[in-house]
């Protein structure tokens, strides 16, 4: 279903429903079992319906005009103080788009692979790629050459743009490459900076017909089954979510706000928030190449940052270490957190330490193109510390019995299903996974266990899917198990999450080793570390006689989790 069709079906469901009396609080319709967002978008936040509108054109249309665009700063690099105004950013996008289209012959539908840490060029690259109808796929610079090669192959990338320091990971793939920076180029490869300079007088974007229903990006997520999959997102998905971000900023921010971006832009959180969405709001964003606690604190002080989109480990770090520094954080007004659950205890400690700062938790997935729930007010966030907010406009939800498929009323726990025009189109080349995740009516099975209370606040209790959340990243046990089983001395293996105060969770491996071998815990850890990104590394290993499995051969992870807890208690 297209975004417009999904929105029409949501509106039809809402208009036809004869909501019971208590629906004004929860948004729940007992006849259909559907929860509706309690917030309607106003006229100024209406979703554009023009079918041939692409993401880049939409974002650029929201920029300040004329002299205001030249005076208004869009991005500042926290390490170099280099800045770019909205006017300069627009011209850079025009220039790079012209160079990609006319010079490098990037065509509509071509997949462009972007491998780079955060930079003030990141948005320019994304908007230029999207403006010519090409498809953007982003990757984590921490990924190994092997992981990069898999994504290049799976996405069918035709072209790549990379930071110079990551070039060696892409060369073996054989795809044509340009660098982000000319300063670090050896002259053998073109750079984004050189292409922008060479076409700097381009008066407009290349004329390419791109429909909202066309694919805009392929972002990689572990999905609901633990296997890495390409989430196919359309221009309509991005346009809807950016309109919703504009709405959320309108109810909680102002044009003189300063945001700090250390959330990686290759991730849907960073891409939608910093790479695209905040440009529609017209605020200033300070860019950090990657997270560093001291660097973050200094940036807040120096640039008078008042909005900090973050993740739970960062909130925990602020609670533990901010008071030990001499940085002035009085400018902070709001901290948002997502990508993983924030514990009530950490939230309470944060509010004690920073009573003047609003702390708001949200919830979303790559498959929803970003956020699905949001706290409109800090008062609500304080009153519902276990919640991740209410459904944002255009969203509706069901809480479904995992065994029967029956929808539940408020306070009953089940799998959270979501429906919105922001929901992904499909998993790339994976019909089986798509069917398992999206039903014929456009409902997304999130794989998360939760409930919605009588006031419409969403509570995510735990993950049904077998993913490990480490520092906001998703780690798939199946991927690590595959690596472990490639070792000649490992007979069987299973990976489970272990709770960790600093990072949320860490991967722990249970390993069955070959008879009479002397394989050590450190050897196993190093073997895995050499093949995966740092955040995926196995942190603990326990040797076991057999891996517990069901009759169907499925690993009984709950048994291993219980065993690991017993082992930890025994050591205390």
Write the layout of secondary structure elements.
Elements: H1 3-16, H2 23-26, E1 28-29, E2 34-36, H3 55-61, H4 66-71, E3 73-77, E4 83-85, H5 86-103, E5 111-115, H6 122-131, E6 135-139, H7 145-155, E7 157-162, H8 167-170, E8 177-179, H9 192-198, E9 215-221, E10 229-234, H10 235-252, E11 258-261, H11 268-276, E12 284-287, H12 293-303, E13 307-310, H13 312-321, E14 334-337, H14 344-353, E15 358-361, E16 363-365, E17 370-374, H15 378-383, E18 390-391, E19 396-400, E20 414-419, E21 426-427, H16 431-437, E22 444-452, E23 458-463, E24 468-470, E25 473-475, H17 477-485, E26 490-500, E27 504-513, H18 521-529, E28 540-543, H19 557-571
Parallel strand pairs: 3-12, 5-6, 5-7, 7-8, 11-12, 13-14, 14-15, 27-28
Antiparallel strand pairs: 1-2, 2-19, 3-4, 9-10, 10-21, 16-17, 17-18, 19-20, 20-22, 22-23, 24-25, 26-27
GO molecular function: ATP binding; CoA-ligase activity
Protein name: 4-coumarate--CoA ligase
Pfam families: AMP-binding (PF00501), AMP-binding_C (PF13193)
List keywords for this structure.
32% helix; 19 helices; 572 residues; 6-stranded antiparallel beta sheet; alpha/beta; CoA-ligase activity; globular; Luciferase, domain 3; GMP Synthetase, Chain A, domain 3
Describe this structure in words.
By secondary structure, the chain is of the alpha/beta class. Among the domains are: 1-36 and 391-465, Roll (Luciferase, domain 3), CATH 2.30.38; 468-571, GMP Synthetase, Chain A, domain 3 (2-Layer Sandwich), CATH 3.30.300.30. It contains 19 helices and 28 strands. The strands form eight sheets. It has a six-stranded antiparallel beta sheet. A four-stranded mixed beta sheet has the order 4-3-12-11. A four-stranded parallel beta sheet has the order 6-5-7-8, sandwiched between helices. Helix 5 (86-103) crosses helix 9. The N and C termini lie far apart (54 Å). The model is unreliable at 16-22 (pLDDT under 50). Belongs to the ATP-dependent AMP-binding enzyme family. Residues 69-428 form the AMP-dependent synthetase/ligase domain. Residues 479-554 form the AMP-binding enzyme C-terminal domain.
């Amino acid at each position: 279903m297209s975004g417009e069709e999904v929105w029409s079906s949501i509106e039809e469901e809402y208009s036809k429903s004869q909501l019971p009396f208590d629906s004004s609080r929860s948004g729940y319709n007992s006849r259909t079992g559907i929860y509706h967002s309690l917030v309607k978008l106003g006229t100024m936040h209406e979703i554009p319906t023009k079918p041939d509108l692409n993401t880049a054109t939409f974002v650029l249309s929201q920029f300040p005009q004329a002299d205001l665009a030249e005076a208004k700063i869009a991005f500042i690099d926290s390490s170099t103080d280099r800045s770019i105004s909205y006017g300069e950013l627009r011209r850079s996008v025009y220039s790079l788009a012209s160079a990609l289209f006319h010079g490098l012959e990037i065509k509509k539908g071509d997949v462009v692979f972007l491998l780079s840490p955060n930079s003030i060029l990141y948005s320019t690259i994304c908007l230029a790629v999207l403006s010519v109808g090409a498809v953007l796929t982003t990757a984590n610079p921490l990924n190994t050459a092997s992981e990069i090669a898999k994504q290049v192959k799976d996405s069918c990338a035709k072209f790549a743009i990379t930071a110079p320091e990551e070039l060696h990971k892409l060369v073996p793939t054989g795809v044509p490459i340009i660098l982000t920076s000319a300063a670090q180029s050896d002259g053998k490869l073109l750079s984004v900076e050189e292409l922008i300079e060479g076409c700097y007088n381009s008066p407009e974007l290349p004329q390419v017909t791109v429909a909202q229903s066309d694919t805009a990006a392929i972002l990689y997520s572990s999905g609901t089954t633990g296997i890495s999959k390409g989430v196919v997102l359309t221009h309509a998905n991005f346009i809807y979510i950016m309109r919703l971000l504009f709405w959320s900023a309108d109810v909680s921010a102002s044009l003189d706000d300063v945001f700090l971006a250390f959330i990686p832009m290759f991730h849907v959180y960073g891409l939608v928030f910093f790479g695209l969405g905040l440009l529609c709001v017209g605020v200033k964003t300070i860019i950090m190449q990657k997270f560093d606690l001291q660097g973050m604190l200094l940036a807040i002080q120096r640039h008078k940052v008042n909005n900090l989109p973050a993740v739970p480990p960062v909130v925990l770090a602020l609670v533990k270490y901010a008071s030990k520094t001499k940085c002035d954080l009085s400018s902070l007004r709001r901290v948002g957190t997502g990508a993983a659950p924030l514990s009530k205890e950490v939230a309470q400690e944060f509010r004690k330490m920073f009573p003047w700062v609003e702390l708001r938790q949200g919830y979303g997935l790559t498959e929803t193109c970003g956020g699905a729930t949001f706290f409109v007010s800090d008062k609500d966030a304080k009153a519902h510390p276990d919640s991740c907010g209410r459904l944002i406009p255009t969203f509706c939800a069901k809480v479904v019995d995992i065994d029967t498929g029956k929808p539940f009323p408020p306070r009953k726990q089940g799998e959270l299903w979501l429906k919105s025009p922001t929901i992904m189109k499909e998993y790339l080349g994976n019909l089986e996974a798509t069917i398992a995740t999206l039903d014929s009516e456009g409902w997304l099975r999130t794989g998360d266990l939760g409930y919605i209370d009588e006031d419409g606040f969403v509570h995510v209790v735990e993950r049904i899917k077998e993913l490990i959340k480490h520092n906001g990243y998703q780690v798939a046990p199946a991927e690590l198990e595959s690596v472990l089983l490639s070792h000649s001395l490992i007979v069987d293996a299973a990976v489970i999450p272990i709770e960790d105060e600093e990072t949320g969770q860490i991967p722990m491996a249970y390993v069955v080793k070959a008879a009479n071998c002397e394989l050590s815990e450190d050897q196993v850890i190093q073997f895995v570390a050499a093949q995966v990104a740092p955040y995926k590394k196995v942190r603990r290993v326990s040797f076991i006689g057999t891996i517990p499995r069901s009759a169907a051969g499925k690993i009984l992870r709950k048994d291993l989790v219980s065993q690991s807890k017993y082992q930890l208690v025994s050591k205390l």
